[in-house]
Specification:
Two copies of one chain form a homodimer. Helices cover 55% and strands 16% of the residues of chain A. By secondary structure, the first copy, chain A, is of the alpha+beta class. Chain A binds a DNA duplex through α2, α3 and β3.
Chain lengths: 111, 111
DNA sequence: TATTATTACCTAAGATTCTTATGTATGTTT
DNA sequence: AAACATACATAAGAATCTTAGGTAATAATA
């Protein structure tokens, strides 16, 4: 993902949010989109991505449709109704995380 | 830390930043300060904290002084000169992480 | 035309960071 | 007397990642 430890734990949030925005995406496309959106600073490793996609699917958050494009298989993932609810939670948790980190890193002086 | 996966990876950043601000702190004090600053939403587990402190120390980022207060031992941690440099990096990495997550979660429309 | 790069999927071993559970010991409150 | 708070610690297992491989098709390049 990056040599930066902070990214640990945020991959599922990223996947879910991108799928919420795009409707459907395939794995390789996700890696490229993340690279684009972060000007090359972030690199989703395939060894992390595919197991994550499979887990999200097995949990009922994602569904898959395989499609053959130019003789190559693409597996398009999209949110299930359950996934639509979950991504709302995830966005709330990200917001809370960001606020808490800000509060610790940059505490309001109390006086 | 929380039932929220996103916190994974951010404990060392939190410890280093608190020590930068406070000068010196002991382990238990860190758990209480984090709870305070986040209105109880964040809970640094001792099973994560103490090994982290020991690792940061073994890496040369922290130094320790034991002190006996009311017949109980406190181990006060503080940044080494190396740690002072490292915490600057960590703050930069947190900033980059936040910006990247924002870029993914809330992309600027390009048109 | 042979090689490399890109696209597209996958898994397994090991590293890292956490949670859960447990332990020790003192002081304070109920 | 029991429970809670303070203060340290470790060990087993879970979760998430990196690294390192593998397959296979198409495109670009030497």
């Amino acid at each position: 993902m990056s040599n930066n430890k902070l990214y640990r734990g945020s991959l599922t949030t990223i996947i879910m949010r991108l799928l919420e925005q795009e409707g459907k995406m395939y794995g390789y496309e996700i890696t490229q989109r993340v690279k684009e959106l972060t000007n090359g600073t972030m690199d989703v490793k395939e060894g992390a991505l595919y197991p994550s996609l499979h887990k999200l699917q097995s949990e009922g958050h994602l569904k898959v449709e395989a499609e053959k494009v130019e003789n190559r298989i693409r597996k398009y993932y999209s949110l299930t109704p359950q996934g639509e609810k979950e991504v709302v939670n995830m966005m709330q948790e990200l917001k809370e995380y960001m606020e808490n980190m800000q509060a610790i890193i940059n505490p309001k002086l109390s006086f």
